[in-house]
Amino acid sequence: MKKIVLFSLCVCLGACTSSVRLSPVAGTQPADFSWRCQRDFPNGQPQEKVLAPRELDVRSCDISSWDFTAYTAQELADVLTFDSKTQFPPKNKMPKGFYPKRVLENGKNPSLSVRALHKQGITGQGVKVAILDQNLLLDHKDYADNLRYYWQDSIYQQYAYSSASMHGPAVASILAGKTVGVAPQAHIYYWATKFENTADAFNAQPVTQALTALLHYNFYLVDHKNESPIRVVSISRGFNEQDYGATEFKQAVKELETRGTAVFTTNDVFTLSRTHSLANPNGTDYCRPAYWLNREEYPNAYKRSTNPLVPTDFRTTAAPNGLQDYVHYATGGLSWAVPYLSGLYALGVQVYPQLTKEIFLQVLRDTSDTKQCNYLGVSFTAPRLINPTAYIKRLQQMAQDK
User: What is the pTM of this model?
Assistant: First the structure.
């Protein structure tokens, strides 16, 4: 595998600032989603009313002729995935109280009082975080100033004029975006790799190769630059024993974690979100289960999972189709949970530099909340909803006790 980094990045090797222009790089140009509107809505507005937990995806669509008066503001906010380029109907065709800009802004809040921690100076400042994901829109305003390093899998050489993925900007901004991120002053080191399947299994080899490159980069930071290493790696993908190259992947993860770098994947996390998009992100109304579960699965799914619960739905993230654009996702999978968890880890490193993955998960368990929920008429118990404030307080106490 060939390591592809811009010349300017090669020169500064991780010490770049916002004065260095990172693009253009293969596969990092703004995307265009306008084609999706004609594909998904060739006959215009769907005749059937879409209700939660389903999703109505109108990113970059001109829906100015549609009529949403059959919806309440809450119903529409709970199903609508849209971005800064979506063109909405006039006021008389919208439900009372629905304001797209307000929905976007509400979704930018990391939620669960994380911004209160930011006001205390707990921002992950200077903590090095790594993301392994699909190609990135490098110059987006939400995270460009925090981006310190960008590595590409050689596959992107073949697509010099291709656009950025929707996945990369989302995970980067959730982890360390200036306005939407959990750790808005962390330093991002990004490995753009591919998530691909073989004929019968996921191919973990490209991710393993990126992890190996990351491991060598950590050696460089510590041994040659006399700097702190990358402390946490966010990979928004799940892995199992049947993956092609699973053994090598686990060995790479073990090597990183042995040397003090925590690695998180979707195997490490589950989700519970605020019940409605318009609800206060810092409130207590968190009872929306994972959108892919059927109603009858709610009780057992939350009883069975032992992972921390992280909010993922109704998130506004950096959009891939404009350097100043944002997108509100009505539904968010575990891909959005991993960078959130990794951002919490970065906040913890700032407070308690001795943090390890084992300590992190134990503290999260000890400080988490249990929710007694009823969603769509189904009652269930959801333990282990993260409590960032209590988590940080516990680490601060541990730091004082040392």
Answer: 0.93
